[in-house]
Write a structure and sequence with these properties.
Two copies of one chain form a homodimer.
Chain A: E1 6-13, H1 15-18, H2 26-36, E2 39-47, H3 51-64, E3 67-71, H4 82-89, E4 94-96, H5 98-112, H6 115-118, E5 122-124, E6 128-130, E7 139-142, E8 145-148, H7 152-162, E9 173-179, H8 183-196, E10 201-207, E11 214-221, H9 224-240, E12 245-248
Parallel strand pairs in A: 1-2, 1-3, 3-8
Antiparallel strand pairs in A: 4-5, 6-7, 7-8, 9-11, 9-12, 10-11
């Protein structure tokens, strides 16, 4: 069975992530959500609020992957330079979108709709709006690039509102096995299981904490049937090595 | 005053971050720690457990920034391919380091020191070890690239153990002001404060939740004196706009 792999990149824009002030939450949500849609998040770049850095990251990723998602920098303040940077990446003008303008005007009312807030109606020429059900100011899509707010709950609403525009492949299914063996103890046999199942991604992650050390083995495949066989093979392998293993109820 | 800006990039290796299974914690710690050392984290790339992807990210960043940090993929299992990927990026052999071998042998004892665990003694030719006080298996440094474990508490111990090898510039100081005004309300005046203080990075972040919406304004500079003046200017600006402002006890 020939399977089309749909890939994507993510550009997270924000000095506050790079300085350690804020811990990025968007990568995790986007990665999991795309997975469900059958789209593989393949690379993430976190860049500063600097036009050149944004242009360079978006340009590299949009040529490499089917889709690119961008978060952050859509607000009304001077450090919000995402729309102009994306326009630059596509070598198009930044234009006032009448629909975005109308929505913002309605939301803020005449009194509060000042020049700064008007900036949020500007999108690159040729882009289409992404609805913002939380705080109105829209994101936008231009070609294969989807630009969304940085605030997690707004970004999440935006991503869900565009999911119908995304053509995914088969979702990547996953199963997780917990074992009390060390990574070094099972490494050789696990590698040979991996060799027998080249169509399955097998990862091993030491789990420490909660008093008991051990390893979690994660198996991923687009084929549920193949996963079942691989899981059985890993369970048998752990038993043969004298370890205990159980499947864990983790689905990401 | 001419100030040397020391920059760095970070490569986070891990399918589990991209799939949304795990939320990356290393970027935040490394960003904040480097900041204290006077080193600006300028770009982060999260890539899959794929040699070509690792080589490409490390190669791009090591030419662009003063330092590059790499986390993840140093264990004994088949999906741990960081050391061989870094060797490839530098076009050198992967060699068994006698000191690493001795440490691992001592730690595991003859019985448990199998071939898989021996793999963890292999580092690129010309690299020097980075101590691992938690679980022994070392990281390594080659030229301006520092390769560390992905498990957060091990990575943190490794980073602290190499901090003396890093030549930093002046640390970037920061001050945070909370206000009850909206971003759109203060955007124009904040932009003109930014214009008056080109040497200060001014960011604005909408803070929602905790019932009360508003904006946090973050000012960053290597000059404490200039920061004091800029903070006073922002406080006066908010008062003039009819808002309330207070400095918050946040230092990152």
């Amino acid at each position: 069975m020939e399977v089309k792999l749909i890939t994507s990149g993510l550009v997270v824009i924000g000095n506050e992530i790079l300085s350690g002030r804020t811990r990025d939450a968007n990568t995790q949500f986007i990665g999991a959500e795309l997975n469900d849609l059958g789209i593989r998040l393949t690379e993430v770049r976190v860049v500063a609020d600097v036009c050149r850095a944004i242009v360079s990251a978006v340009d590299a990723l949009r040529k490499e992957y089917n889709y690119v998602f961008v978060t952050g920098g859509l607000g009304p303040t001077h450090d919000d330079i995402t729309a102009q940077s994306i326009a630059k990446a596509f070598a198009v003008e930044l234009v006032c979108d009448p629909e975005a303008l109308a929505r913002l005007q309605r939301h803020y009312g005449k009194e509060r709709f000042n020049e700064a807030r008007k900036r949020m109606a500007y999108i690159p020429l040729g882009a289409t709006l992404i609805d913002n059900p939380v705080s109105v100011a829209p994101g936008f899509q231009i070609e294969n690039v989807f630009v969304m707010a940085g605030v997690p709950h707004i970004m999440q609403a935006m991503l869900l509102s565009v999911s119908h525009r995304l053509a995914g492949g088969a979702p990547l299914l996953s199963r997780t096995i917990g074992t009390d063996l060390g990574e070094g103890t099972l490494a050789r046999d696990l590698a040979s299981v991996q060799n027998s199942f080249p169509d399955i991604q097998i990862g091993s992650y030491p789990s420490m904490g909660s008093g008991r050390s051990g390893v979690r083995i994660v198996l991923r495949s687009i084929s549920g049937k193949r996963l079942v066989i691989a899981v059985e093979t890993v369970l048998a392998m752990v038993a043969q090595l004298g370890g205990e293993a159980e499947e864990l109820d983790i689905t990401v």
